[in-house]
Write a structure and sequence with these properties.
The protein has one domain: 3-Layer(aba) Sandwich (Glutaredoxin), CATH 3.40.30. The chain is built from 4 helices and 5 strands, in the order βαβαβαββα. Strands 1-3-2-4-5 form a 5-stranded mixed beta sheet. A hairpin with a 2-residue loop joins β4 and β5. It is globular.
Length: 97
């Protein structure tokens, strides 16, 4: 399930279960390439636009996009930068879960 962060409380959204948080921007080419890959996954994906949620991006030290941050029950487990294939993401997910 892909969900876009709007006005919800970020911590409340990711507090339970496994989440992949995709820090992206609409103008970012690799971000647009990553979108369909994330939609194929059977995981909770929260997309956070760095242009509209600058404070959240700063909180997690997002310097390059796309950046994927993996959370399990609200705890940060891993962070990767750049485009990843579905196979790469499945391996990362398997390691974290």
């Amino acid at each position: 399930m892909v969900k876009y962060l709007e006005n919800e409380d970020f911590k409340e959204v990711i507090k339970s279960g496994f989440w992949i948080v995709d820090f992206y921007a609409d103008w970012c080419g690799p971000c647009r390439m990553l979108g369909p890959v994330l939609e194929k996954l059977e995981e909770n994906v929260l997309k956070v636009n760095v242009d509209t949620h600058e404070n959240l991006a700063q909180t997690f030290g997002i310097m390059s996009i796309p950046t994927l941050v993996f959370f399990k029950d609200g705890e940060l487990k891993n962070k990767v930068i750049g485009f990843r294939t579905e196979e790469d993401l499945q391996e990362l997910i398997k390691e974290i879960k």
